[in-house]
Structure formats: C-alpha cells, structure tokens
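Quick illustration, no need to memorize.
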Amino acid sequence: MATPVVTTKTYKEKAVIGGVTVWLNSDNSIEISDTNYPSVKAGLRALSEKAGFKYDPDWTVQQLGKKLIAFVNNK
C-alpha cells in the first residue's frame, strides 16, 4: 500500500501517473507521492515505464522529473 506524502513546498508543475503524483517544486526539486520506492529516481523510472516514456539512464532526478511531467501533461 502506498504511503502518501503531502508536500509542504510550493510546486510549479505536477503530473499524476497511475494515482502517484510527481511534483516539480519551486526550488526545482522533484517529489513523488509514493514513498514505497527506494529512491525518487527509482520511482521516476518506474513511473516513466508505466506512462510509456523513454528516458535516458544518465539523466539526473531533476531532468527526468521535469521531462516526465512535461510528457504526461503533453507539453
């Protein structure tokens, strides 16, 4: 069962993938609402696969998060 996270930061953008929210915060950090992943990067990779988004394994958390949010939101 997913443990929900409530972000206390102000976010610029967000996307929802399979019930999991990904936030791009105003400080350009990335958060995900499911804390059951071993890391944010692992969560973003799993969510990318779920969304059908191809990512570069060399991307940073910020790069992957921003691009995934844009992909899901069709930007």
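The CA atoms of residues 11 and 26 lie 5 Å apart.
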